[in-house]
Write a structure and sequence with these properties.
With 194 residues, the chain is of the alpha+beta class. It has 9 helices and 7 strands, in the order αααβαααββαββββαα. Strands 1-2-3-7-6-5-4 form a 7-stranded antiparallel beta sheet. Strand 4 and strand 5 form a beta hairpin. Helix 1 packs parallel to helix 9. The radius of gyration is 17 Å and the shape is globular.
Length: 194
Amino acid sequence: MYRVQFAFAVVVALAFGGSAQAADPAAAKVLTPDAMGFIHVRVADVWSSELAKQLRTFAAQAGPDLLAEFDNRFVPAPSEIESFTVVIFDTKFRDPLPIGRPIDKTPVWVVTTKKPLDKTELMKTMAKTGKIRKHNGKEYYFDEMYWSGLLILDERTYAYASEDSITALIDRMVKGGDSPLAAVFAREADKHIR
């Protein structure tokens, strides 16, 4: 089972790469030794790729106002996302995103933006009832409505998951250790399938 998960991570890293150490050091930190798998997508690279040319042409025909309107509906704006990484620590999760269950595990979604995060605007959309909580010496934002946690990893990166998954992530990051998946991420992330 572990080899299958490891192989899956290698294929995904090869398919959706970018330089992990240079571009996504915070995402690499989330791949702790007990991570079971991940999916990493360099959104900016995918959008500018030859594969997305038809989509870009269609978007241009729709008009710049439509794209701007779409961008303004989200924080961070989709055009400002450099990459996202979904990390799986437990395969027995019910939902991929938090939906309000007090005791629930979800994958951890790590989003890296092109520019520094606007924390105030991010809290308005991702943690509307954002209460600051502390766990193992780290602050995170808790949203009671979705029972979710948001952890700022650096000025351009945040992690989002159920509160239980965020507190478990904090524990994992504090514990540290060598991760085979982080090694794959760092080594293979600048390669991709064309």
